[in-house]
Fold each of these.
Amino acid sequence: MEEINQIIEKLEKEVSNLFNSESSGHDIYHLKRTMNLALHIQEKEGGDRFVIAIAAFLHDIHRIIQKETDRYCSPKDSLIKVNEIIQKNEITGERVAKILHCIELHEEYDFSENGKTAKDTEALIVQDADNLDAMGAIGIARAFSYGGAHGVPIWVPNIPLGREVYDESKNDSSEIHHFYSKLLKLKKNMNTKTAKDMAESRYKFMENYLQEFFKEWEGKL
């Protein structure tokens, strides 16, 4: 764990400036929470702890590229930049390849057009950790932060809820729509038993929140 802490400390100095102005819920604190979630899951599920920690901490570099270029950037498109950051630290080639693999596949969903292809424990855990941070109280806060940063309204009642196929490159009609197209689907998208158990309470919190939201919206509460 000491080795991981030393590398993360170096990486944080490297990427903090990149995420300083990030206000869409994909900030440095999201990276830290995702890493901590991933390490908690790893304790139960196994896998290379070092690879999981570094991949979880660097998984959202594509968000920064997207903000700088003002166009969609996939995790795969960020791998050159991620590799540049990694190469400044003492990480072996085999581990680098595994880290990049986890980052490339971390935004796979059963409910997207291409589905999920990840099979290795490390990538599955990074997926779970990132998805858990999109759920519950934190997930709700991040959803509306994202909406504010990208001009997505809170709720547009006259547009039907849900999308048959989720597409990460396109924003939903409102953030409430986003709950139904993605956030509420994440519970069934979890890979590991540990993450599935953790997702239960976060899912229920979001369900309760939406019930309250619609009552207040309609002036019934």
Amino acid sequence: MRLAFRIFSAVLILAAACVLVFALRQRSQAAEDFTHEVRSAAQEAQRIAHDVVLYTSARVGTGANFANSLQHMGLDAVTAADVTGSAASVFNFRRFHAGNLLWIGRSVSGAVRAVKYQIDADRMLLIEAREAGYHAEIQPIPSRVETLTITGTVRDSLFGAVTGAGESPELALRLSEIFGWDLDFYTDPRRGDTFHVVVEKKEYLDGKTAGYGRILAAEYKNAGHPYQAVLFHDSTGAAAYYRPDGGALQKAFLRSPLKFAAPITSHFSMSRFHPILKMYRPHLGIDYGAPAGTPVQTIGSGRVVFAAFSGGSGNLIKIQHTNSFETMYMHLSRILVHTGEHVEQGQTIGLVGMTGLATGPHLDFRITQNGTYRNFETLHLPPAEPVARQNLSEFAAVRDQWVPLLNAPVTLQASTH
């Protein structure tokens, strides 16, 4: 009995010792785990303080320079000067433009870590804080180019139809330029008109539109009548838009001296009551009612023969064209060309105003042929040359590749840059 008790006691003591050893080990492991967690937390906090950069952004204001813009975003004058100086060797600050995006990256403690400025759709100026100071370089912006078909329906204007389809106003401008020889996008669009365009669309990797490349084919259906265009490069590499039959889309003159939605307030007439002179007299041009400052474009290439103030005509530009025509642009608020200058079709030459005898801002546009005033609304515009005979088979292949896709609203191909 006494022996059994001793054995039991020994076993009990041994078990208690094992439990104690296990508890001590658990406590030691817990302490070690806690120490490791504390160390890891400290390292994580250090990593966050060192690696995490929080960005704030703003658009560059009108008239602001780079250093001033940084100060407006919270940098002190010394830091702003240091950041600006570090970039002077890689970036020309004369190309720092209002409206572009500027970012400042700070650590969680507020230290400046990086500055980014978007130069254009393809390039970013990156300035990073390093041990030896600030380092600046220009980096490409990753993007993706897709060839796709975009469609839309007009309810009020081409501009509204394009933006309503989720696209940039740039696309509306490009379409108006393509069809500008056949259609006046101030007066011709009708509710229910449709457009289809096969275009190269550039997007950043976050899905935001960066811009548009080539428009390969386009269609605008106006009051049920389709106008189609195909981009074709001839054997010399020159690019132009043609109808599907190979005829030239381009003409000697555009259909309007303005680009978008300005109503005609007064037509060509041999007897019109003048609102200021209070008498009937010929009105040998067309008045477009447009806000002051609206850009005015030359309808055709030529040479500026007059660009100055001219009495009742106000600020006046006269352009002489090679085919016996002369065009006049009157009542401008500003003249952007000078006498003797050669201008290209579609070039902005001035801004709408109300100088001279004018009751409100508008453009009085006139055209003469061999010295005789002509009614531009009914004037037949001579076409440019069609696709050359030797290029017809190549043009047909391009046409047959893109025109059938005008009614296929899908992504056709994509590449990442």
Amino acid sequence: MPVSAAKTEPHFAPPPSPESVAETGLRQAFLEDLTLKILYLNGSLSLTEISAQMRLTFAVVNELLRHLRAEQMVEVTGMHGNIPQVAITTKGRNRAFELMAQNHYAGAAPVSLESYVRQVQRQSARDTDIHPPQVERAFTHLVLEQSTLDKLGTALNSGTSIFLYGPAGTGKTTIASALSHVLAEDRVFIPYAIEVDGQIIVVYDPQLHGTGDDSQNFDARWVLCPRPAVLVGGELTIEMLELQLNPVTKFYTAPAQLKANNGVLIIDDFGRQRLRPEELLNRWVVPLDRRIDFLALAGGRKIEFPFEMFVVFATNLHPATLVDAAFLRRIQTKIEIGTLADEHFHKIFQAVCKENNLEFDSAVVDELIEIIRYEFKEPLRACHPRDLVNQIRWAARYLDTEPVLDRNSVRTAVTAYFVADTNDVDGNRIERVN
């Protein structure tokens, strides 16, 4: 299992809480419209409840409500102690109905694009110093050569991009995920949403960014959470790299690279996506080189966003067969993740056995290595121990017995797992695809 990241305080200043509408960086009319939609959808709310929903200070919400009361859009219906209870009027309800036709967003107040750009640049992963103890702590659950760990740590200090390549089943995806745990020891601020020309782009995703920490004294429109790790695989399309406008709610969802800003973006099984590598090359030549990305709103206007993330391309194809030299040059580090030596295979198998409460038997694993290497003509891969132990556990569950690592269970596991015949029906040798 991955090592829990040690939560540390950010080494940059947090975004300060705005104490007036002017300090939010947003137009007053925009915030008033958002307030009306919240009241329209929720009914009567106290000023404190509106403040919590909008993630704005009491002072800012009070300023908004004073103007809305003057415009007869809302009215005070009562008091809870010193806190007013507010409801929308008929005039306000008609206005809110018109606003809902524009978009249905009624959540936390967004931040301005200018504020977002400043904050992302302030907390860039390139400014994070990575040292051997952090790398070793994140990779303690894996068995890797020290030279490989050193290459990974060096790559992380670049804050740019990396190619992990090698045969299938050698642990590239696991290594890529562990890289994110190194950076996750540091925490950054992620906004709930961004406002651009009156349009809303939702960035915060609790599934990717976690629940966050709002106990600190900073602008509550931001969530303090570990540096994000976003993984996309074979499902990736060129459309997924653009702003996603929901035709019903009429606000945008940020693409994968925007959600990954200040963290790690993992392109798993690169070269096997629904988009061709050349398409991704053309789309990301500028972002990888200049660290800026251009995203289009529905009307066609292009908006410049920061591209501040550590990009990991994991593939079982050779990089030179996937992309041209110009793109390869922009990926600063290439690390080959190869098959295992016997010693490392033993270490991984022993760790998997311990995790699954199986007694490890070195002699049985030696015999297993001979079977894999000489009977099935396969190299030793990092995935084999876990996959074969799973086969042993499943068989024991079926037979209603306790799983045990012995010759019989191993033989049953390998015959179920490996493809024995490497010749086709005409006797021609089939080349394995890695």
Amino acid sequence: MTVGQQMTVDLAPGSGVYAWDRPQLIGSALQLVSAAGGYPSRDPMQALFRAVSPGTAIVSSLSDAPCLHARPRCMIAQRV
């Protein structure tokens, strides 16, 4: 990407009750412009990033079950 270009990330919910968390950004080359959907809703996660400087960036997101954030937590199987 060149400085000023934008990148959209669209993540559909997984099977069952899984939903994507808000994307995390490591590095200074990108800036999060907007994010919508994802956990705690079952709406697709949509994020817009803009390249703001030369360099590298890592964009990541996790998907898990909302009941894992409840008290008490659910006891569903987990995997890496």
